[in-house]
Amino acid sequence: MKETEIKPTSRKAMRYRGVECLNCKHPLELSDRFCAYCGQINTTKRLTLKDFFNEFILSVFTYDSRFRYTVKDLLFKPGTITRYYVDGKRLKYANPFRFFLSASISYFIILAIIGFINGNNDLDFTDDGAIQFNVDEAKGDIDAIKDITKDININELQNLNPEDADLLEERINNTIENSVSKLKERKKTKDSTKRAVKKVPYSTRSEASIDGMYLSKIATKGEIFYDFFEYTEISDPVTALDSLNFSKTRTNIFLYSKNEDIKRVKDNPARFIRFLASKIPFFLFFFAPIFALFLWLIYSKKRFNYMEHLVFIFHIFSWVFLVLLIAIIPDLLIGDEIVASLLLLLVGPFYFYKALRNFYKQKRRWTLLKFVFLNIIFYLGATIFAVIFFAITAFLF
Q1: How many CA atoms lie within 13 Å of 101's alpha carbon, on the beta-carbon side?
Q2: Which of 66, 154, 179, 353 has the highest local Cβ count within 10 Å?
Q3: pLDDT score for 243
Q4: Taking 80 as the threshold, does the pLDDT of residue 344 lie above it?
Q5: How far apart are CA 66 and CA 84, in angstroms?
Q6: pTM of this prediction?
């Protein structure tokens, strides 16, 4: 076959070709443009800025072609992309596991950037120990000072006799002192009210008196520890356990140390919610094998093995994040997550049904029955697994 014309200065030119691959040392012929073993270009030409830029562009568009085919078939050919991938047509598509992680993490990164640009960090930095001014009450104190000085001209202050000046200074000082006293009294009243509500007696129950199942014991200890922490504000687990006469086991120390985390969650729930949301890709990643197991059991008579069911699940999850990524711009323009919600609630079920039908190739009635059953299993399983997963995540917060 005749070679296509190559420029003499190109890295693929005949004069730059070698008889051995510089990457893997595989023997080559001068007619070989690329190594048949590792795929690297057969050239001995020194790297230049132009060559480096050309290779960069080529690598981008090479990945871009796989990315483009993956996105297109995921969006418009539900289930078909999985069948192609399982049947061996894999060079055309991105790795399903890597693509899922890339799509999900990209979505949350974009959300974080948008939130940073808009200034929507939802953080509450209010200091509960600071003096909280009541505008209506403080207005009276300010007006009292204004009443004293409203009829005084600045120029007239220089002409006041010493007795009038002393009298004016005394009146202003008395008003300021009264205002400060009122503010202190309000803060004192507020703090005493807060203590009356917040500081309730903690349980003096002994460790030996706690019985029941293991999880029940843990829950009871956690409640005792948190009540004690709220009342005494002692953060050191060893000191607190000594005061409670509890044994200083690793479990008890760990449980008591979580009081600081619980307090942080109560003080700033928005930050905790964002922390959980950032773990959703990992939740889906770990939940996918469980859901694939149900597919493997339901479609046990089909020729697909467990890993091929898992590829199907990751393609479904990737579609979800692709839809969320696509909906970001219209949702920003609208000001609400309407587009994403409509696509997931209305298009999502139909997409899942078509994916089952196209991949497993069963009749409509059997696909519909399994579609309903899998949705029930999915929501029940996801709920149970989410509680466990996010409970563990909360402990690590």
Answers
A1: 6
A2: 353
A3: 81
A4: yes
A5: 13
A6: 0.56
